[in-house]
Specification:
Elements: E1 13-18, H1 31-37, H2 45-61, E2 65-68, E3 85-88, E4 91-94, H3 106-116, E5 122-123, E6 134-138, E7 141-146, H4 153-164, E8 169-174, E9 186-190, E10 193-196, H5 203-211, E11 215-218, H6 221-224, E12 232-235, E13 238-240, H7 246-254, E14 258-260, H8 265-268, E15 279-283
Parallel strand pairs: 1-2, 4-5, 7-8, 10-11, 13-14
Antiparallel strand pairs: 1-15, 3-4, 6-7, 9-10, 12-13
Length: about 290
Amino acid sequence: MPDWTTSSETGRLTEVLVCPPDHYRWIPTNSIVRRTLAGGSQPDLPALAAQHGELVAALRQGGATVHSLLPEPHLPYMAYTRDSVVVTHRGPVLCQLERPQRRGEYAPLLDWHAAQGSRFWRKSSAGTLEGGDIHILRSGLALVGASGGRTDLDGAAQFAGWLRAEGWEVRIEGFDEHFLHLDVLFCMAAPGLAVACLDVLPEGFIAWLAGHGIRCLGVPYREAMRLGCNILSLGGGRVISARESTTLNAALRAEGLEVLDPALSLFTAGGGGPHCLTCPLRREEETP
């Protein structure tokens, strides 16, 4: 059985799941893409493939083995592999997607994991739960966003309960569903360092992070709505951030991080960046 476990967002990423955007198109399921659709036509498929190829190259440059799902024509947002399954310290958890246009994504994920010999640790069955709202900050400490839109309180509480039974501390953070997932407003960059939309997130939440030794680099609201906060830590001092996030990328480099910056504008316009487009399957344990 594959040893697919992650106990942090920032341990060295060794295996990751993506899905080629063969059937990707913008669908009006969130506030970001509705704004995009108001401005023009659908993205060009060769350009989508080129941008996704840059992301895959960055993942491999960072040392990860990249696994791929077979995309299905009627599920255009399968490219955002973050949401259907989240891998924990005990293994994969099958999520329960909220939008009707995405609910069918559970089926190819079940088939793929079965083909790999991978067992699910848990399966979400209360309310709704989506991977973009789940942040495993470090071993023993997790964060779950609950907007009432994509992840509701029942789904968040069920997932938090599973971790709390393992002795973890879990914070459930409410936010406005206008922001889609919590990873539009917050992502980890490195141990003890996050990027966050300080214009929106409550002071109490930022103080809670600080109390756990996590410092935040601020991203303005306008940039956050372009998925500026949506980054992926590769571990080992490396991070993937969209090329278009120039100000943030400079700030990350000033922190001593190596920033791999694929062009991802066609995906961020649909509501998802590097964090959304990747499902970490295995990360190495971090040493204290």
